User: Fold this.
Amino acid sequence: MIVVTTENLPGYRVRDVKGQCFGVVVRSRGIGGNIMAGLRSIVGGEIKEYTSLLEEARRHAVDRLVQNATMMGANAVVMMRFDSSEIGQTMSEIVAYGTAVVVEPDPA
Assistant:
């Protein structure tokens, strides 16, 4: 599955647009991670526990996006974007979304 943030794929043409597709993940850091992150926030700098959490959540959201697009019969996703929000004080929602399409090599 080709997943890009651009509108077009060089060397391909869009044969069919299947529609919008998305992958959603909601993650929460455990109490140990929250304590470590709280301690790190006192001294400043990167909070690696949360960086790791969000990187993993983005990967899972893209995996779910690909599953959704595949079920729709697409072989590519164009205009992929991420969105995120907080749920309560301990959970993060990550959404990967885009347009599921069928592409084919451009003969030109």
User: Anything to note?
Assistant: The first strand starts at residue 2 and ends at 3. The mean pLDDT is 87. Helices lie at 31-43, 48-71.
